[in-house]
Each structure stands twice: as structure tokens, then as C-alpha cells.
Amino acid sequence: MTLLHVQNMTHYFGGLRAVYNYNLSIEPGEIRGLIGPNGAGKSTIFNLLTGVHTPTEGEATLNGVSLIGKSPHEIAAMGIGRTFQNLRLWRHMSVLEHINMASYAHITYGLVGAFFGTALRQKQEAEIEEKSYHLLQLVGADKFADQNVTNLPYGILRRIEMARALATNPKILFLDEPTAGMNPEELKEMMAIIRHVHSELGVAIFLIEHRMKFVMELCDRVQTLVFGEVIAEGTPDEIQNNPLVIEAYLGKDLDT
């Protein structure tokens, strides 16, 4: 069964058409890429599929259950985790606290357990902390667990945001420009981390990225979006040699 299915999704902001007739199917364990020039509507698609906005038209389902009209926290509970183009971390919290916080949606000890410190609370809190350390290890950030996020370099913060998204137990992980602002060495490290996460957890991944080399080496299939419409979809090789894609990038070398 298709994991994520989007059919004829269209969205307007007032009189501006941001996304038009968008279709997508992602299978379990697949890595899909979404590329396009700035302003093409890529992040808008992420926002439509995660409940930030509600599509004007169309349908989107996760494991056959509609996403339309659901809030972001409901969609996260259904199995879509995401990172953001701009980091959204809390300055007053440690790295470990960030990851723990994302797991609290799954606790069952309730208000009484929280107030009285029941055995169930102690058990679940210990399980959450163990899981959080494991996720930080997966992304290579466990040695920063006790540090405040304000003291850490940008590349590490990107890893922490990914670990936080994974703590929600997603079936599919949305990554919005995971290498933005990174140097070439950090880019290589991030690619290795995503591959490691994919291998260890088996989670499907849907990513937006401007680094073409990153997309072409990592993804199974790629869509190209221009002015809210998909102009090409296929394997990385097919995308790199598609005349419409080359024209959209104004002749830019897609190997960079």
C-alpha cells in the first residue's frame, strides 16, 4: 500500500496560485526529492501536507487516512515528522530536552502520574531518555546532549532538529533543505547521516534541497517544481538530462 498519496492538490493564497494540480506517491522506505527554483512552492507543499495550511482543492492521505483538515499535531501523531527551512529550536532548553519533548505525545501516565511521580511515569521517562540518546547517536550529536542549543554550531543544530523529528516516530520524514548553510564537508556528513537514519529506522524520506549533487546521490526519484507545477519527475539520471529541468535552472550545472 502506498504510504503517502497526494492527488490533484491545488492551493491559492488570495488570488495567487501557489501550487497547482500536485500529485505524489511515496512508498514505505522510499527516499524522494523535490527540487525547483526559489519561490517554486516547495515549502508550501510541505506546509499543506503537515497541516500548516489546508489545500484549496485536492486530497492527501497517509496510509489511506485523509490529512485534509487535520492540525499539525494530529498529522504528526499520524506519522509525518518534519524539519523546517529555518531552525525552530528553543533557546532555553538543552539538546536532550528538545528530543525528550518530542516524545511526550506518546506518554500514557497522565496528570496523576506526573503529579505523584508514579512507577509508570518513572518507567516511561526512562524509556524516553534512552530513546532520545539513541536518536542523538544516530545523527552524531549525542556528545552534545547536556548542552544548551545556543552554544552549538549550525551544522549540529540541523542534526538535532532531525533527531527531534524522528522522536515523533514518523512513518515518513520531511526534510526542508537539510543542508542549507552548510559547507561541503558538513554536506557530506549530512548525507551520511540521512543514509544511516534511513538504514537503521527504515523510515521513508521526502526532502527539499537546492544542492543538486546531494539530491541526485541520495534520492530514488525526484520531482521538479516550477511556479507551483511539476514539470518533470523521474530517476536522478532522468531529471539531470531533462531539457525542461535544465532550462528551469538556467543552464546551471546540475552536478554542483
Describe the overall structure.
The protein has helices at residues 42-49, 72-78, 95-103, 110-116, 119-138, 154-166, 184-201, 212-218, 236-240, 243-248; strands spanning 4-13, 16-26, 31-35, 57-62, 65-66, 80-82, 172-176, 204-208, 221-226, 229-234. It has 256 residues and is an alpha/beta fold. A hairpin with a 2-residue loop joins strand 4 (57-62) and strand 5. The model has no long low-confidence stretch (mean pLDDT 90).
- Low confidence ranges: none
Estimated share of beta-strand residues: 15-25%
Helix fraction by DSSP (H/I, runs of at least 4): 25-40%
Number of strands: 10
Secondary-structure class = alpha/beta
For the largest sheet, list the strands in their spatial order.
Answer: 6-7-8-3-9-10
Q: Tally the helices: what do you get?
A: 10
Q: Measure the end-to-end span.
A: 35 Å
String of helices and strands: EEEHEEHEHHHHEHEHEEHH
